[in-house]
Amino acid sequence: MSAPGITDSVPVRTLRQLGSVLLFLLQILRQCVPALAQPRLIVAQIYNSGARSVIIVMLCGFFIGMVLGLQGFDLLQRFGSEDAVGIVAALGLLKELGPVVTALLFAGRAGTALTSEIGLMRVTDQLTAMEMMAVDPMRYVVAPRFLGGLIAVPLLVAIFDMVGLFGAQLVGVHMMGVDAGSFWSQTQGAVAFHDVIEGIIKSVVFGAACSLIAVYEGYNVDPTAEGVALATTRTVVASSVLTLLFDYTLTAIFLKS
Amino acid sequence: MTSAPTAGNAPAASADDVIVAVRDVHSSFGRRAVFQGLDIVARRGRVTAIMGPSGTGKTTLLRLITGQLMPDQGSVTVWGQDLATLEDAEIYRLRQRMGMLFQNGALLTDLDVFENVAFPVRAHTDLPEAIIRDLVLMKLQAVGLRGAARLMPAELSGGMARRVALARAIVMDPELLIYDEPFVGLDPISMGVILRLIREMNEALGITSIVVSHDVHELGEIADETYLLSQGKVVASGSPEDLQRSNLEVVKQFMNGIADGPVPFHYPAADYFAQLLADPGT
Amino acid sequence: MRSNRALEIGTGLFVLLGFASLFFLTTQLPGSRLAILNKEDTYQVTAKFDNIGDLKDGAPVSLAGVRIGRVASIGFDQNDFKAVVTMAIDRRYDHIPDDSDASIQTQGLLGGKLIGIGPGGSETYLKNGSQIDFTQSAIVLENLVNKFFANFSNKGSSSGGDAGAAAPATPPAAGPAPADHSHTKEKP
Predict the structure, then answer these.
(1) Environment class of A155 (CB within 10 Å of its CB; exposed 0-12, middle 13-18, buried 19+)
(2) Is C22 inside any structural domain?
(3) Rounded distance between C-alpha atoms, residue B227 and residue B51, angstroms
(4) How far apart are CA A158 and CA A165, in angstroms?
(5) A248–C contact, CB cutoff 8 A
């Protein structure tokens, strides 16, 4: 790894970063198929990134669902359409809040864990030791973690959406008195299949982006203790910004077509 | 600085005895020149020691030998092959014939001792589980840690971690073993253990060893051939006794641990009295 | 490997939960508009309107506030330039007088359009292929506003104060409009 030239200007450095990340992604993708030969590694990573994030995802999903229920009810009440509160919650969750918030939560909880884990392996020479043993760390360490995150995020989003809907229903039906049947029939009437698909596509894209950033930062960390700390911060920031950027892009694309 | 004459102990070696040859290597990191014409040769079956003050780029040298870094000038030849001409896959194949012991062991923290030692075997072979088990236990026995097979790296002391790392380094029966600062931070007993193991590995397995260290006394006990680096070049080479007898100032300072000499005590600074007498704030 | 069993169980549960959620979200949530009504359970009735507003396929058809069917399709008659709405009505409701009227109403203020049936008094009933003759178009907000200002400028010259009060003749929030059989009479 060559150090960035001290004389590179900001635009050049950004371009270099971007190129570096993309090349890294290519390397990972090349190792993804061989990595699938080690299902145990991938399962372990799905556990680390996904199963261990379920609690926080469910908690946040629940609260956000309830808030959507409250705000939606309040808003719709002004127009006499309270029983449409399910629509507000469902569409809001499926299309936007589910994928985006889950991605941000993932970046904060699992992304930082990935970055510091890989970063620590770099600092303690474990990655170098692997290279010395003629074992490609991309195949054994990076690719399984990337795949683990990629698989985990859409599942987490689905769980988030479900719990959110439940929370919205709790508020709308049991607290605000909207008729349960009306709540669900309105919701079912308003949610189309493509809304769900849009949410799934977003979750896959966000999952890929956040996982990629997390493993990239960890792998290329400056091999000191503070290097790892800085890298985890960068992971969260970059993941958040990229998620929102992709969110806008995808939303615009979906609305055009 | 030129090399001191080598002693006559070593028999005249033929070219196939040379396992690793570093010839006139120049390497720099950023603007700092690390090596400026380095020449080192490691011969088959012998322990070659590489010493030098801190910061002389010993780690860089190891990276050059293992193919992780390419020299700016000069060549690094391992088993007769110039590393710069090899592709990644070929370098990987070469590395399978090497074993490396890292300064801090570099054990994989999420695997236990047994799995750590088994790691290279599982990665490169399809051996059945029973054979892997026997292989790992045998190597652990060689380093005296067969009973610790199920401990986690976090539960090991520094010395034990290093021994496990050694077991891992030899599990694939390499022809070349590289030790990066194996004595750092060990208590006298552990140090004795490592010394014994290095010597045994070398004699029992007939392998070539390269030890990078600055422990003059320890290296004196095991090295066949010693190189002393300073300012990016070899300033002295030969058997440990040769270096002890050397008249070169640089060598004497290092071998005897003298605080001030060719490697100065004082970091470059302005004139002392001038600075004291000058106005505060300068 | 440590706690291998716990890890595998945990992961399995997670993946199961995730896929179950995905399954629910993709199959149960999106509306099959009217999950209960299949084609065989309904009979088709048409009605023509001058203006259907933003009435959509699948919009509810209700009578006395009860949903009895849905809009099956919307077409256009090129001869008299009217919108032709085909409704699928639940077979259970087979006693709807054939002189009933159909008007396009709004659910709440933000809601979509629906068709409200006002029962007539005839002894013969709507059946498959019938057409409802009495219809009332959607209330389009722009027309309403124009009307308001037209009234305003008419009355405003004579009495400055009460023009505002007289203006909005028809309320924008549409409840079931009083069935006015003389309003629009269409020949089938």
Answers:
(1) buried
(2) no
(3) 6
(4) 11
(5) no
Q: pLDDT digits over A54-97, tens only?
A: 999 999 999 999 999 999 999 988 887 787 888 899 999 999 99
Q: What is the C-alpha separation between B144 and B146, in angstroms, rounded?
A: 6
- Helix, strand, coil share (%) of chain A residues, nearest 5: 85, 0, 15
Whether C11 sits inside 8 A of A191 (CB atoms) is no
Interface of B with C in 100-159 (CB under 8 A): 111-112, 115, 152
The structure tokens listed for B154 are 């976090």
Query: ipTM greater than 0.90, yes or no?
Result: no
C52 and C8 in contact (C-beta within 8 Å)? no
Residues belonging to chain C: 188
CB contact under 8 A, A43 and C25: no
Q: Does A192 sit within 8 Å of C29, measured CB to CB?
A: no
Report the CATH number at residue C113: 2.40.30
Pick from B186, B182, B115: nearest CA to B153: B115
pLDDT of C187 higher than 60: no
Q: Which of residues 215-274 of B touch C (CB under 8 A)?
A: none
In a domain, C132, yes or no: yes
Neighbouring CB atoms inside 10 A of C51's CB total 14
Say how far apart CA B268 and CA A140 lie, in whole Å.
47
Task: Specify whether the backbone of C65 is left (phi greater than 0), alpha (psi in -120 to 50) or beta.
Answer: left
Q: List subunits contacting chain C, requiring 3 or more Cβ pairs under 8 Å.
A: A, B
Is the predicted pLDDT of residue C180 greater than 60, yes or no?
no
Using DSSP bridges, classify how beta strands C82-90 and C101-106 pair: parallel, antiparallel or unpaired.
unpaired
**Is C163 domain-assigned?**
no
d(CA C149, CA C168): 9
Who among A43, A156, A165 is closest to C18 (CB)?
A156
Q: Which domain holds residue C110?
A: 39-136
Can you tell me the mean pLDDT for B94-121?
89
Domain ranges of chain A: 38-256
Q: How far is A119 from chain C (nearest CA, A)?
A: 22
Q: Report how far residue C105's alpha carbon sits from residue C96's, in angstroms, rounded to the nearest whole number.
A: 19
Q: Do A159 and C8 touch (CB under 8 A)?
A: no
- Domain ranges in chain B? 1-6+15-90+209-261
Largest CA distance in chain B: 77
For the stretch A134-156, pLDDT in tens is: 888 999 899 999 999 999 999 99
Name which of B76, B71, B114 is nearest B98 in CA terms: B76
Tell me the shortest Cα–Cα distance from A234 to chain C, in angstroms.
28
Give C162's DSSP letter.
T
- Structure-token pair, residue B6: 């080598």
Least confident residue range of B34-43, B180-189, C179-188: C179-188
Domains identified in chain C, total number: 1
**Correct CATH for B1-6+15-90+209-261 of 1.20.1250.20, 3.40.50.300, 3.10.450.50, 1.10.3720.10:** 3.40.50.300
